[in-house]
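Fold Annotation — chain and its backbone
Encoding — discrete vocabulary of local shapes
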Amino acid sequence: MELAQLPQQGASQAWTPACSRAARSRNWPLMQQIASAWTRAEPDSVQAWQSLSHACFEQKLFTESLDNFRQHVSAARIATAAERFERAQRHLTTADRLQPGASEVLLASCRLNYLTGKLQQAEQDCRQALAASPTLVPAYITLGQLCQGRLRREEVAAIQRLLAQTWLHPEYRAALLFTLGEALDHVKEYGAAFSAWQQANRVNMQLSQQEGIAYQRDEQEQELDILISLFPPGTGSSVSHKKAAGTESPQPIFVLGMPRSGTTLVESILASHSTVHGGGELPMLPEIHDELIAMARRIGIEETRNVMQRKLARWREAYLAALPTPAEGGAGEKPRWVVDKQPLNFRSIGLIRLLFPDSPIIATERDALEIGLSIYRHDFSKNWPCAHRLEDIGHYLGLHRRLMAHWYALAPNHIHRIEHADMIKDSSAEIRNLLAFAGLSEEPACYEPHKTQRAVSTFSAVQVRQPVSAAFSGRARHYVSYLEPLKKNLPA
């Protein structure tokens, strides 16, 4: 059969024998041609990519063969990040056939299993990746997250050896220091643990400064004043969060608060409901919020109120258009609700009340020292420039407290407050109240969110796979003497 005669899609029954004939005759260039056309026609076909790699290898085109392998590893990583897990697994299967046992494949497989809750398999993949490549820095970082600091002595020693290397990239150095701190905390070496976190945050602060990112206290305080002025008492007081009949679905449920205050747990409870999809930390509302604040700084409060009213419909449409859809392979009806658990949305409660009067708002609260320490010992993104210094964390916690007091006074019956300590003390009662507030029927799965199979990509990914307990609380008591800079910056 000539190459031009082969169908261009759905043609496995034609491509397979054509490649086989070329291989039997050892006509590797022809096999490469056929396989290349096959990968274009059926890019998700494992056999097509395997045939192409085989043909390249036989012609000693090792670079091309390696490129095929790396293409699949990269595609798997992208598909995993996009929560297209079946597609990611297909690419990983192909990559593993091209280079069995390769550390890159094992690490990508670890990430896939981590996100989908297969934690034992993820840990196994990670340790196999390290066995194949003992200096694979990302694998140590991921392993530390999976084991929550419970690393073996030889793994801690390997991390310390890596930290002694001058070639280590600063971002990897910071991440490894955070990992080391967790391992030292686990064995109760609290002083050494805090020192590791301190070093990690210094590296991150230097990186942020190189990019022109810094925590600006005056700017943050000015934003708080703008929000209180834009949304005075009485704003949106007549709206109700109950979902209106006939409202097009899905609609957002907002779970917000300071990071490390329990937002991921609350999202997991809600997303265990049959009518709810967990969307994670969505970026659209912070973009709208930043547009609003920039406008207020430019044209003033009164004019911004007028312009804001004209923009509400467009902002609402933009937000709804950007809502995620459930990952592939999902079953059942389209969800009626999508949880947006972006913590930064605590700034935007006044805006939410105008944009989405039919949306429940759940605010999570937790002891300030527990939040502050937890932020300090995690590798936070550039969205949180306050995270690198205890003084700045304390200041931002104070702003959060002041702004939330304003929102609670503004809409006392429309924000459901969940104290983390209460959730631990009596999770059943808290979950029952949460479901009632959101207008959701009680479903058994909501009371066992750790059993729900769904992707979780935050720092709490391992915690939410376990039953609600006090196991992760009370850590700050070991570090009280180190947290003085945080306490001094909290409001009295």
About this structure: The first strand starts at residue 251 and ends at 257.
